[in-house]
Each structure stands twice: as C-alpha cells, then as structure tokens.
Amino acid sequence: MTTADRAEEAAAKPIRGGRPYLVLIALILGLIAGVIAQRTGDGLREPALQATNLIGGLWLNALKMTVIPLVVALLITGVAAGAEAARAGKIAARSVLWIVILCTASAIFGAVAVTLLTGAFPLPEAQAQAMQAGLAGLDQSVASGPMPAAIDFFKGVIPGNVISAAANGDVLPLVVFALLFALAVARIDVTRRRSIVELFQGIADALLIIIGWVLLIAPLGVFALAFSVGASAGGAAFAGLGHYILVISAIGVLVTLWAYPIALIWGRIGLATFSKGLIAPQSVAISTRSSLASLPAMLGAAKVLGVREQVADVTLPLAVALFRATGPAMNTAVAFYVAHWLGYEPTMAQMIAATAVGAVMSYGAVSLPGEVSFISSIAPIAMALGVPIAPLALLVAVEMVPDIFRTLGNVTLDVAVTTVVNKSTESVSSED
After folding, report:
1. Residue 269 CA: distances (Å) to CA of 298, 310, 408, 418
2. According to the model, what pLDDT value does residue 144 have?
3. What is the pLDDT of residue 260?
4. What are the structural domains of the chain?
5. What is the pLDDT of residue 1?
6. Residue 406: predicted pLDDT
7. What is the pTM of this model?
8. Which residues of 294-330 are buried (b: 16+ CB within 10 A; e: fewer)?
9. Cα–Cα distance between 79 and 217 in angstroms, integer?
10. Which three-class secondary structure string do you get for the chain?
11. Average pLDDT per run of 10 along the chain, which is 432 residues long?
C-alpha cells in the first residue's frame, strides 16, 4: 500500500461503517433539540445557543482551515497527473480530453440546472424565510469579498500576489495560479517534477488525514450546528433539508443519463447492451459509494461491451483517478443551492467564477466517499460565489444520500467514456 493509499484509507475510515448514520442521527437530534429550545423561551434557549455556537464554530473552523492548502495541493497533483497521463499515448490523451470536456460541461450544467430547479420548485416562502433565519445563526463570514463586475473581474483572474490571494481567500485567482503551476510542473525535468508532485502529494495526504480526524467528531459538530438552525428555523429545517436532497440528487440523476447517448452516439454501443452491461458496476457503486471499489466490475463491464483490453486497462483506471462526471455539476449545484437558501443573488461574474472553479476543482478530486471531499471540493466554489461555507458543514450529515447518485453517475460515465475512447482509437496500434 502506497503512502497516498494509506492517507486515503485514514481519511475514509471516519465515515465508513455506521458513522455516517451517527452523523445523520446527530443532525436530526440537533434539529429536534433546537425546535424544543425554541419553544421553551430565551431563558434556556440563549445559554444553549451560546454553547452550541462555540462548539459548532470550533468544528467548522477545523474544517475550513484545510480548504485553501488542500485546493492548491490537489490541483497541482491532479492536473500534473493528468498532463503526465496525456503524454503516455493516444489512448490516454484521448481519455484526458474527454474528461476535461465532460467536467467543464458538467459544471455548467449544474449551475444552470439548479437555477432552473430552484426557480421551478422553490421552497414555500414561509419555509424559505424560516431557513434563512435559522442559517443566520451560523457563521456568515465569506472568505472572499464581493466579486467585481465586468472588466475588473477579468483583471482579477490573474493574481498580482498569489500569497495575498490565498490569505484573502480569493479562490479563482488561486485556482488559476495552481492550474498554471501544475501545467508548468508537467513540463520540467522528470526527476524534479516527481519531487515537486510528491511534495504536494504528501501535503494533500496529511491534510486528508486531518480531515479524517475532524470528521471523527462530526456527530458533535453537526449536532451543535443543527441545534442553532433548529432553534431559529423550527420545523422548517426538516423541509429545507428534504428539498435540498431532492434537488441535488435529481441533478446527479440527470448527469448520469448523459452516459447513454454518449455511449450510443460516440461509443457505438446499443442502449440495451450498454444498460445490461452496467448492472454489475452500478450495483457495486450504489452499495459502496466508491468508484475505486467499482473498478473491477467496470473492467468486467467493458469486456462485456466489447472494449479492447488495452483501452479498458488505460482509460478506466485513469477515469477513476481523474474523472468525477457528477462532481462538477453536483458540487456547483450545492453552492448555488446554499445561495438560494440564504436568499443571495450572485452576480453574473460570481456565477462564472464559481462554475469555473467547480470544473477545475474536479481534476484534483480524490476517489473517496463524498463526506470526506465534500467541504474541500465545494467550499472553494461557495467562496467564489460569495456565499458562506458554514451551511456546508451541516449538509455533510445528509451527503450520504446524494453521494449514492454521485458514485452511480461517475461509474456509469466512466464506462461510457471508455467505450468512446475505444471507438475513436480503433486505428491505434497495440504499441500505444
């Protein structure tokens, strides 16, 4: 087992087994306790709120402190790995190209879809106002200030001082720098390149372990945050969370459906054949919520679908390592949904920035259950959008439901892209 594997194992351990259910139970109990406290009057409610705000705030800060360094480390290692893979041959290069195209399309789709869905099926006004009141009790600080408009926005995309951008939480300029740095690293001498990538991989591994430690006390932190929301929002908090789960899960399902026309049109695989071949990997994906655990079943499905072994052996592991088809869409949708919850109206510049960050951040995502990567993947998008990230710590508790649809879509599209690469490289010699 490599160092990276051990770090991912340590990060995933806190959310395996029954712990996600403990976090969900803590959320429900926290909301119920908050509703009860709301009805008992300020004599009990206010002291309880002070205590839970302190506990929840400390836990939230422990999650937030990893965001900026993890963004940089994951982007550098992820993009450098993708660039390295693209040079490995025509099959790998074609795979990386499809990954970039679909990740970008996914982020755009997520932003548009969540805007349309929340517009067509909004929370009832009374419940929306109650949720806004409940979330107002959480930390409302935004790491980055309001995004400038028009020409000033585009001027700010290139950071004049990357250290200052990191300190101020200016996510988009930081992401641009990390992306350019990673691409530059991929072009230097191989020995030095490996040293730099290993350094940032070590930083990412250490940060993932810290996230694992923080998630060990997630039930306590989520209970405290849920109490604060329940004490202000009352029973509307349950309706708000239910609405969130339905909207985000629906976006995951819609992205998953992309796989079928992709396999049919570009992969030249019949819909019935493709659907039948995906039964095994989709079953594993639903039960494990891990693309990595689904890889053996995906390799078997590729063989059933007639994909050449040399293509499957390159494209599927590469897709598992780099490709999160549902990630850009669902992560961007979560940030936009939080804005909807809070009644925010982001500017067009903010929406463009958030969508761009959502696409690029998917390149460095690790193959772990969603609770681990939830904050680190979505917080940068929320920061670019100009909304607080505190509600994300509350949504971690219900991520186990949308994460099923995340993994299902990722696995399905991994296989679909593999069929496309197989068809488009039929003339590639076996040496590639």
Report:
1. 15, 18, 19, 11
2. 45
3. 96
4. 3-424 (1.10.3860)
5. 46
6. 92
7. 0.81
8. bbebbbebbeebebbebbbebbbbbbbbbbbbbbbbb
9. 32
10. CCHHHHHHHHHHHHHCCCHHHHHHHHHHHHHHHHHHHHHHCHHHHHHHHHHHHHHHHHHHHHHHCCHHHHHHHHHHHHHHHHHHHHCCCHHHHHHHHHHHHHHHHHHHHHHHHHHHHHHHCCCCHHHHHHHHHHHCCCCCCCCCCCCCCHHHHHHCCCCCCHHHHHHHCCHHHHHHHHHHHHHHHCCCCHHHHHHHHHHHHHHHHHHHHHHHHHHHCHHHHHHHHHHHHHHHHCCHHHHHHHHHHHHHHHHHHHHHHCHHHHHHHCCCCCHHHHHHHCHHHHHHHHHHCCHHHHHHHHHHHHHHCCCCHHHHHHHHHHHHHHCCCHHHHHHHHHHHHHHHHHCCCCCHHHHHHHHHHHHHHHHHCCCCCHHHHHHHHHHHHHHHHCCCCHHHHHHHHHCHHHHHHHHHHHHHHHHHHHHHHHHHCCCCCCCC
11. 47 55 88 86 79 86 83 82 71 82 93 94 84 74 49 64 76 82 85 89 87 86 88 84 94 96 94 94 89 90 92 87 87 93 85 88 62 78 86 85 92 94 73 46
Please say whether the beta carbons of 59 and 214 come within 8 A: yes
Structure tokens at 249: 């899960």
CB 200 within 8 A of CB 7: no
The total of other beta-carbon atoms located within 10 Å of residue 24's CB is 18
Q: Which residues contact 384 (CB under 8 A, 6 or more apart)?
A: 144, 147, 171, 172, 350, 353, 354, 356, 357
Residue for token digits 């990567």?
373
User: What is the residue-averaged pLDDT of the chain?
Assistant: 82
Please give the Cα distance from 320 to 317 (Å, whole number).
5
| Contact between residue 432 and residue 426 where contact means Cβ atoms under 8 Å apart | no
Distance CA 81, CA 84 (A): 5
Query: How many of the other CB atoms lie within 10 Å of CB of 254?
Result: 17
How is residue 192 written in tokens?
A: 């030095």
Which of 227, 213, 216, 222 is CA-nearest to residue 65? 213
Confidence at residue 256, expressed as pLDDT on a 0 to 100 scale: 96
Which amino acid would we find at residue 421? V
Per-residue model confidence (pLDDT) at position 265: 95
